[in-house]
Amino acid sequence: MSYRGSCLCGAITYTLNAELSDFGYCHCEQCRKASGAAFGANAGVDRAHVDLSDPGDRLTEYASSPGKVRAFCGGCGTPLFAYLTTTPHLIRIRLGSLDSDFLKTAKAHAFVAEKADWYPIEDGLPQFDTWADPDILVQVGSRQSQKRR
Ligand SMILES: [Zn+2]
Ligand SMILES: [Zn+2]
């Protein structure tokens, strides 16, 4: 399994040589801000399987809360991945940055209590006020197991 992705300006490209984890849509305020959209859609992968090309040294990191790092292109601002400093070997890829087809479908809506009023959820996926039930969706590399964002 292999996926390719890139930022909007093309300065940063990556190849994933592994399958991505299951994913859901996260409506929490931080994901809305970090994505500039109604929700975040991120899937985990082991960093050992990620081949990142950044010849212009554009990758920029921002600690949005203690222990939580968001990496983006400093040239165009595209969010690329995030990780926890406690598990830096697991990164959560921003699915919007993929160039390859990705055929998995979302398992759930998380943090629906914080969702944007202007986005009506009209699919039949399970909805959770905070983290998804881990029997339905395990968000690899997230704070789900600690019940915190
Ligand atoms: Zn860029
Ligand atoms: Zn979130």
Q: What can you tell me about this protein's structure?
A:
This protein has a single domain (3-142), classed as glutathione-dependent formaldehyde- activating enzyme (gfa) (Alpha-Beta Complex). A hairpin with a 5-residue loop joins strand 8 (79-84) and strand 9. The longest helix is centred in the first third of the chain and has 7 residues, at 29-35. It is globular, with a radius of gyration of 15 Å. The chain contains 1 helix and 10 strands. The protein is mainly beta. The protein has one helix at 29-35, and strands at 3-6, 13-16, 24-26, 40-46, 50-53, 59-65, 68-73, 79-84, 90-94, 109-110. The strands form 2 sheets. Strands 6-7-8-9-4-3-10 form a 7-stranded mixed beta sheet. A 3-stranded antiparallel beta sheet has the order 1-2-5, with no helix packed on it. Helix content is 5%, strand content 32%. The protein binds zinc ion (ZN) (2 copies). The site of one zinc ion (ZN) has 10 residues, from loops. One zinc ion binds next to loops.
Summarize the entry for a quick read.
It is built from one helix and ten strands.
Give the terminus-to-terminus CA distance.
30 Å
Q: Which CATH class applies here?
A: Alpha Beta
- CATH architectural name: Alpha-Beta Complex
**E-strand count:** 10
Shape: globular
Bound molecules: zinc ion
* Number of structural domains: 1
SS element count, helices: 1
Rg estimate, integer Å: 15 Å
CATH topology: glutathione-dependent formaldehyde- activating enzyme (gfa)
Hey, roughly how much beta strand do the residues contain? 25-35%
CATH superfamily: glutathione-dependent formaldehyde- activating enzyme (gfa)
Main β sheet profile: 7 strands, mixed
Helical proportion?
under 10%
